[in-house]
Design a protein that fits this description.
The complex is a heterodimer of chains A (about 260) and B (about 270). Chain A is mainly alpha-helical. Chain A is about 70% helix and about 5% strand. Chain B has one domain: Arp2/3 complex 21 kDa subunit ARPC3. The chains are: A mainly alpha (about 260), B mainly alpha (about 270).
Chain lengths: ~260, ~270
């Protein structure tokens, strides 16, 4: 189990200082760009922007943590999509089992790149936005407080439960539990001695947490404030306007057939 | 307030188990997939929100946050919500008892619920990712459904057997923490009909979605399917998802849980 779960990179860059809502707008614009384009070269543009942001903000190093996931997703997409693409254009790879046309190759490459662009764009948001900023940003967007509270509390409690899971795992392994023993079904059953103690630890916490909150007069129906209150500054407005511009521009290019196969 | 606390805490519980994957890859066989069914039955709406939020936070901490996270959120929400709505409402399949998992009939009922829950979760995620043009429905849908069902069917009974009595003793079951108006009872026949409808929509969405994805509506696999994949999913696939979502929301509103009745009959 990972001892340091957070992917946030604590730096003081221009991107870090932006309001989370502005960052969210920019990420959404990158999502839209990755979604609207089909040609691998066009999809590479939002991917390159996201990688650039990661490089500037120090998040590139953390990307290594999910390189296996990214590689697996890219390869899975690249292997699957040719079967779902029209067999247009010249054959570029010919085997006794199948022929791969140029269109199929570009289609699969574009789709796989899109998956990676989505993940890297989201990753850029996560590495530059702290958990508290995510929650206050959602509240700023009008998401109900009860939801924000649940999300914020869960985010804060995550490391605690991760630690508890690690402790229980070590304790059970010391008693002879082997999580990797047996076939898939047996391996699933091996998790029972781990699941129960962790779940019951959490259940016991519900009572104490709710009593502590009630004792302090907590009420999700009332308007709550955040310690880290931000105003939407000129830079935030500028980035949001840029995001809107990107979305409009991408839709315009799509309309003109640019970046399509 | 307690609902929010329960949701938050159980979301946090879900996350560590997301990391405990058995087969890493596109989607993993996760022991955590047993939790939505058990939490849905025990904690009701709070469990559904908790599981959904937990999945979202798992994406944030796991570095896979993206547009697909919205569908992971919705899929896991309905996985738990369908479990909450179906328990006790599937007469004559239902045991009419609390989910203590001390009888074969209860286990059989749980398996039926796990099948419906796994199907709706898989259908929502596969539909969403096809619309986003990430993976075809026919590739992802069956894999997620099988993973979800296996984990829920294998781990669900022991999980409930060991935790349900303790949770009930602590007064944290949803009939104990929810306001009385939220538990207002519907007629038994209406709830049963709605529950069967929920199960049918869940499974039908997955089956029809896979069929559309492999081009069963329009001819041979691959050839015709290729033409339906323009930008995102095909029009029939998108329409299917829209209709299924409306049906899921409508039937969820009509169906009332039977756990309070089982508790009062104790």
């Amino acid at each position: 189990m990972s001892a340091a779960p957070t992917l946030y990179v604590d730096r003081d860059t221009f991107v870090h200082r932006l309001d989370p809502r502005a960052k969210l707008a920019m990420v959404l614009a990158l999502f839209v760009a990755a979604y609207m384009f089909e040609h691998p070269l066009a999809v590479a543009t939002p991917l390159a922007v996201a990688l650039g942001v990661l490089a500037l903000t120090g998040g590139l190093r953390k990307l290594g943590r999910i390189k296996v996931v990214i590689t697996a997703l890219f390869l899975a997409g690249f292997l699957v999509w040719p079967a779902y693409a029209p067999a247009r254009g010249p054959v570029v790879v010919s085997t006794p089992v199948f022929d791969l046309t140029e269109y199929e190759l570009l289609f699969a490459l574009g789709r796989s790149e899109r998956i990676v662009a989505f993940i890297v764009s989201g990753f850029a948001f996560i590495t530059t936005t702290s958990n508290e900023e995510i929650v206050s940003g959602l509240r700023g967007l009008g998401v109900p407080y009860a939801f924000c509270f649940a999300l914020g509390t869960a985010l804060r409690l995550f490391p605690t439960f991760l630690g508890a899971t690690g402790t229980v795992k070590q304790a059970q392994e010391a008693r002879g539990l082997d999580l990797s023993a047996g076939g898939p079904l047996q391996r699933m059953r091996n998790y029972i001695p781990l699941l129960i103690p962790v779940l019951m630890t959490a259940v016991r916490n519900v009572n104490s947490q709710s009593m502590a909150l009630e004792a302090r007069g907590f009420d999700t129906d009332r308007e709550r404030t955040f310690y880290d209150r931000r105003t939407f500054r000129a830079a935030d407005w500028g980035v949001t306007a840029l995001a809107v511009g990107v979305v409009v521009g991408v839709i315009g290019l799509w309309w003109l057939g640019v970046g399509q196969l | 307030m307690l609902v929010a606390v329960v949701a938050a805490l159980f979301a946090a519980v879900l996350i560590p188990f997301k990391a405990l994957t058995i087969v890493p890859g596109v989607t993993e066989i996760r022991p955590a997939n047993a939790i939505p069914v058990a939490f849905g039955i025990m904690f009701g709406p709070a469990g559904a929100w908790g599981v959904a939020i937990g999945n979202l936070i798992g994406d944030i901490f796991g570095g896979t946050f993206g547009p697909g996270s919205a569908f992971g959120f919705a899929g896991n929400f309905f996985f738990a919500l369908v479990s909450y709505k179906l328990w006790g409402n599937l007469a004559p399949l239902s045991s009419g008892e609390e989910p203590t998992m001390d009888s074969a009939r209860q286990v059989a009922e749980l398996w039926v619920i796990a099948l419906a829950g796994a199907a709706v979760c898989a259908a929502i995620i596969a539909w969403g990712l096809e619309v986003l043009g990430q993976f075809p429905f026919s590739v992802l849908g069956p894999v997620i459904a099988l993973n979800n069902f296996l984990a829920a069917a294998v781990l669900g009974p022991p999980l409930l057997y060991l935790t349900y009595p303790r949770v009930r003793e602590m007064g944290l079951l949803y009939p104990d923490v929810m306001d009385a108006p939220a538990l207002s009872d519907a007629s038994s026949s209406r709830s049963t009909l709605a529950a069967f409808g929920l199960a049918a929509v869940s499974i039908a969405w997955l089956v029809i979605g896979v069929g559309l994805s492999v081009g069963l509506g329009g001819g041979a696999f691959i050839g015709n399917t290729a033409e339906t994949f323009g930008q995102g999913g095909s029009t029939p696939q998108i329409a299917l998802g829209a209709v299924a979502f409306v049906a899921l929301f409508g039937l969820s509103a009509l169906s009332k849980s039977r756990l309070p009745a089982a508790l009062s009959a104790r």
